[in-house]
Amino acid sequence: METPITVAYGDGIGSEIMRASLHVLMAAGAQLTLETIEIGEAVYLRGHTSGIEPESWESLRRTKVFYKAPITTPQGGGFKSLNVTIRKTLGLYANIRPCKAYMPFVHTHHPDLDIVIIRENEEDLYAGIEHRQSDEVYQCLKLISRPGCEKIVRAAFEYARANDRKKVSCFTKDNIMKMTDGLFHKVFDEIGADYPDIAKDHWIVDIGMARVATQPGRFDVIVTPNLYGDILSDIAAELTGSVGLAGSANLGEHVAMFEAIHGTAPDIAGQDKANPSGLLMAGVMMLVHIGQPEVASRVHNAWLKTLEDGIHTADLYRDGLSTQLVGTCDFAEAVIARLGQTPQTLTPVSYSADAKPFSTVPYVPRPPAQRELVGVDVFLDYEPRQPSLLGEQLQNAASGTALTLSMITNRGVKVWPHGFPETFCTDHWRCRFVAATDTHLSQHDVMAVLHQVLNAGFEVIKTENLYMFDGQPGYSLGQGQ
Predict the structure, then answer these.
(1) pLDDT at residue number 481
(2) Into how many domains does the chain fold?
(3) What is the mean pLDDT of the chain?
(4) Long-range contact list for 125-131, CB < 8 A, 24+ apart?
(5) Among residues 99, 192, 375, 421, which is most buried (max CB within 10 A)?
(6) Are residues 321 and 419 in the same domain?
């Protein structure tokens, strides 16, 4: 029986590589019924700020499989990333990006590179919550949740177990972001204990990425928050010889999306130059996902044989390695001509009938922590830039309330009390008020101090309540605290 899938041809080179990829998949015997939708630049410019129309959502919810070419998001105008919108709206929490070297047929400095990057797909800085708070300062909120961490970390270990991978590495920056990235690392350690058969380690993301770039053989599966995974997967894909080789799967409990990791390449659009390999390999992942592993194996092996025979698009072509320079269409025809063949030097693939990327495990909420309000951070847009004067004025403003001023920071650096005159300050100030005594604070106490601050003539641009959770601070303590 044919499987219905939703297809989008995208922008730039998208239509060329999608036609080529579908041509190969169908020639290999893929049993697919295509529902085509329009997404991307033209839809944005028709007034849909997310780049997709309402009826297209119905197709995605009906087929539950999306095969997508790259799209263009217009600059300015408040347009939102369609990829982020789809991933978050449909719960596609796991982004899986295999990156593998194909030496000696595709040039790379790292012939042993064979890494799968599993990236959290819904939160982190990609929550898209940004504000301009003052004339000089903008903010972007980094949101990390325990459910998000638990789902992606378990997905990584399940993927490793299902695909005979031996180690899972976690990349975070929890030496700096001790609460958000610290939670990701903590959950990795907790869940990793359930998989004693799989080796595990943790890396600070900057040195971890450096090691991937120089010693990729040290890694097998890498799990990481959204932004780091986005950057790392492009680096790793480029290390294989071309970012154009890499496909990706975006998976959730209900829907899956398959795409190349690269963009629309408008400089070569319409010229029959683009390499369709990334989208084609995403198509292979899609065939495995929908239960057509034999076809997936046939396509993948024919593609490997094409690379092995030196038939390369311009991004891969090298004198001495390549035998024939081809365009998009001829590359697809070369793959089709090799259907049924297997590579002789590269390792052939064989997907099993029960192959799945990983098993989804529903998140089980924990009992809520005991929460206690202990203070408030008040953010001000303030001139002049005199921390001592600001501290004195705010102390006076809080007089007679249940809270007292404990600290002022500017861009996260403490400037009062005992600040340094050398510290550069902007017009954006965080002023921390905490309980003046051991008495229990209420929301009314917070409102009272805010009322006093406003009456003193200050402009409050944001507030953030400070809580203890089961006796532990739910906020960063700051310098000198």
Answers:
(1) 37
(2) 2
(3) 94
(4) 125/226, 125/227, 126/84, 126/226, 126/227, 128/80, 128/81, 128/84, 131/462
(5) 99
(6) no
